[in-house]
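Subject: Polyketide cyclase/dehydrase/lipid transport protein

B.,
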Amino acid sequence: MSGYDIIDEAYIDSSPDLVWHSLVAELSGAASFWLPFNTFESSGPADELGTTVKWTVHPKGKDKGGPKLRFTSRTVSVVPGRRLTAEYFEGVFRGTADFTVEPVNGGLATRVSLHFTAQPQGLAKVLSKVADIGQKHSDATQLAFANLNTVIGGRHTSNGVHR
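Prediction pasted inline below.
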């Protein structure tokens, strides 16, 4: 396969504000819910234009050995609380990550999605010949979204107050 165009989504039992805050914190390096497969190092808050994020994919899990897929993105577009787009410009992928956060059920739940559009480079291109990187990406994203629901599910905001 020459490239990836994948959309993963999930419903989180929490308010959009908390989902957004958690997503931005994770991309900024919080290591709260994307473990064990992805870690992030950020030059600043991920929801600020121009912020760079170094992504490391740990196919076997963090600290479990095996190859590490590393790439860097730059935040290129933000609609606060709703959408964050990052462009991969260095490392094993070139493309974009487009995260969206949308209220459902009157804001008592949230649909979160990641649209991953990328061309593999280097090690990722080599590994794509022997492994279904697209499926592994979706599996890791779905696990991360399930972990997010476990971490913040059932929590909501009302006038800025966390319950």
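The helical segments are 16-27, 122-127, 133-152.

T.
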